[in-house]
Structure formats: C-alpha cells, structure tokens
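Newbie here. two chains, one complex. Structure please?
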Amino acid sequence: MRQAIVVYVAAIALSAALVAKLAARHGPFFTRPETIVDHVWWHGEPARRMLKFLPQAVKKIPPNVTVAAFQPAGGLPHDDFCFYTATGYLTHQFMVPPMSANPGTPKKDAAQYVIAVGSPFTNPDYELVETYSDGALYKLRQ
Amino acid sequence: MIFVLAIAALTLVGLVLLAIPYVRALDGAAQLSIAFGGGMLIASLVMFAMSVAHVTWSRTLLVVLFVIIAGLAVKRWPDIRRVRVPLLVLIPIAITLYGVLDARETCGDFLLFWGPKAVHFAFNGRIDTDFLAFPFYYLMHPDYPPLLTLVYAWGAMAAHAFSWWGALALTPLLLLTSVLAFRGMAAHAIGERNASLYALLFASVLAFAYEIGPVGGAGEPPLIFFETIAIAALTFAPSDRGAMLVASLMSAAAVLTKVEGTMFAVILLIAYVMSQRRIKPALLMAIPSALALGAWLLFVRHHGLLDIYGARPPHYENVGKVITHLFGDLASYSVYYLPWIALVVPMIFARNFRRAAMPLLVTAGSLAAAVYVYCHMPDPTFFIDSSAHRLLLTPLMTLSVATAAASE
C-alpha cells in the first residue's frame, strides 16, 4: 500500500512537471502548428522560418540543380541550420553549402538556386524568382 | 497516416517472434510490442541486406518480402483477449502525443539528419552511400547505424512520401510499446498489480525525460524501446532461454539504432555475467549484436564512411569538468533530480535487491559510459549541454526496471 502511494505521488509529480514543461514552450496550445519545430525553436530561427515557405519554393526549383539555403547576413551567404534542414525536403536537387553562393564564385561551382530566409540576398550574380512571406527564391543569372 | 500505419504494420512481420515460448507466455499487449520491435529489426535487416546486394528497394518488392515473413507467423496471432493495458499509463503517453503533435517535443537532430537521411534513402531505394559520403553532409554522421532511417524509409516508400508528422507520432507509439513490453515481462516476476504500478512510474519518468530531451523523431525512442525489452527480459527471466534470445535480438536492434546501443549491449552482457555468474549464455547472447555491428562496420568501411566508430584521443583531464557538469547540472533535468528521486524512493520498500542487481549494474555502467564518452570530446561542455538529457535516458530506464524488480 505504501509502495503504491509513493509511486502514485511520483507519477503525479512527474506528469505535473511534464505539463509544466510543455506549457513553458508557450502558446498557442490548441492551434495546428505551422512547422514541426514551432515550440522548440525560437520564432526567428532561420530554419524554422524557411520551413514555412520551403514546400512552395521546392515546386519552383527544377530537378538536378544545386541549391543553397541560408538566412543572408548583410545580404550575403551565412552558415546556419537551413542547409541541413532543406536537405530533407529537396530530393530531386543537390543541396550545397551557403558558401557556394558567395560573390565571385565561378559559375560552374556556384549554387544554381538560392533559398534566402528573411532578409534579401544581394549577390548580383543572382536574380529573384519569387518572394514568400518569410523569404525568397533566387536563381543564378545565365 | 499511411506512413505510420505501414511502420506499425511491421508488427505483423515481427509476429515470428511469437515462435519463442517465452514471448508466447506473455500477455497480448507485450506480445504485440515485442513483435513490433522484431518487425522493425527484421525489416531493417532485409533493407540493409538488399543494399549490400545492390538490389534497389521498391514498395512492391518490400511488401512481398514482408508478407512472406508475416506469413510464417500466420498461426501465431496473439490472443487479443489477453491484451492488458493499465489505463493510468495512458495519461503520460497521451500528454506525450499532444506534445509531439503540437511540435513541442521535436528533436533538432530529426530535422537535421535522421529525417533527411531517411528521405534520401527512400527516394533512391537504397542506403544512399553517395549521399552519406558527400563531404558537406559530414555532420549528418555518415556511419551512424541505419535501423531508424530504414524504418522511416520503409514508411516513406509505403506512403509515397516521407511524413515528418508521422515520424513524430511514432514517439508516443514507441513509448507505449516500451511500457507495455516492460509491464508484460515484469508481470511474470512481480505480479500483475505491481507490474501495472511500476509501468505507470516507468511511463511517467520516460514521458517527462522525453520532453526535456526533446527526443521527438530522433533515435532515442526506438533505442530505449529495444533496450527496455532486452533488459526487462534478462531481469525478470534471467534463466529462460527464450528471454535470452529476445534480449539478444533486441540488443542487436539497439546496436543498429544508435552508437550508444553498442555501449548498452556490452554493459548489459557484463552485468549479466556479474549478476548471474554465467558466461556461456552471455557469449551466445553477444552473437546477434556482434554480427549486426560487424556487418554495419564492414559496410561503412567498404564505402569509406567510417567516422564516429573510429578511435578518438581521450581527454581525461576533463573528467572533473564532465562529472560536475553532467551530474551537477544536466542530470537534475531542471526539476531538482525529480526523475531520479521518483525511482529511488520506492526502493525504500524494496524486497528483492538480488533481482534488481543486474539493472542496477547496467545503470551504473551506463552512467560511467556517459562520462567515458564525454571524456573523448576536447571541449565536452557543448556536447553535454546538447545531448546529456538524451544520453541519460538509458540509465533512467534501467533504474526504472531496477525499481520494479526490487519491489517484490
């Protein structure tokens, strides 16, 4: 009996702590999340913002091209989680690291498409294809 | 939905494990849970073997193979009248289901490498060694064991698309099957009532720790699932040959799920030898894990992918820092060590420390192994901060098993 009481108290305490931890990840609590990381990555996290428009952007990118994804810093490529995250969504293309979209990169080595999160990507070698609420898609000029 | 159903349907493939008398003697819920584990192991072995043989996966081919294997178990359906699910354990699991489906328990690694690997494996119909070898994807751990990515790839092939939400939904399912397998195996030794009581504690501890991880979609839920079956089998039926077979198969599955699974398998066998004083069964039990690890290492070595399994220089000068940060900060889970306290306090009423000896040894071994692993990082602080809550899941689980084992 005493054993059972101890276990029930422990289970209640752990469940309460679990609910408290989930609640600490902030609301909304009963709204369908936009992304699978809505409550674990802060709202400004570039990869989280990218997930909001990535499915739309992917439809505009032809197969067998190289693609870089990042949140530009000062208009230029920047290393963040976008590169790895996008790899899981682009199966017909090849993800390449952000540095592949640096100004001055030879055209044969440069990413053919760039998914830019948030701020504009200003490398003049690229032209805008489409804009989204949280970013834009760019294409290497021919 | 098809993604989740296809993976859950691997239970049918794993029903062949019901040929083991030990499994057949368990209640229906435990039988189904162990069959689910067996199904994931068999499916991943089939897909791995096909990759080795350069046979491209296709949905039709895999379905045919799985149906043939499931057909072997056609006379071994579990008796659903014997399915026992204590309703209270469903509370922490329901909270976990809410947590993952409201994007509150997603593990970053799921998005950064578990998911992308599975997506590309499914798309290319094989363990895509070209993808793994691409230098810029190095941080995705090219030689990480393949079981989870293969199971995800099967789900993606069956559904014609990878479901990120579906993969997340497997986390509470794996927690549920861990709890039911544990309860069913414990019931034989400590009685139905006590088994249900400690299943509630087991579920509450792991549900909480899964949230803190967080582990949604990552390798820990299947790892803990396989480890739970392995250690529960050997704790509650240490002399039963069927239990040993189940433990050895689930240890092999753990080895193929995460690198930590190999540490667990080794520690489990050492603890078994120390507590049971029996070497020969331990050596026999080591065979499936050794074969699984050997096959995977040969495969990754052949493709030039060897990385994390390679030798790394130790940094034992960090041992003090590691112990302080790991046990002083992270192990508290930000709730004053509540999960540990919740597992230790019931031991005040313990009556059978002899039965609990093995899981207690595994707990101690897993904690020591965690220190050992972090002592191989030049700057362990970052790695402890980013992974300790997940690495400590194994000792938490084994301590749960020990607490239950000592209760009666």
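Moderator note: Chain B touches chain A through 55 residues (CB under 8 Å). The two ends of chain B are 42 Å apart (CA to CA). Thread marked as resolved.
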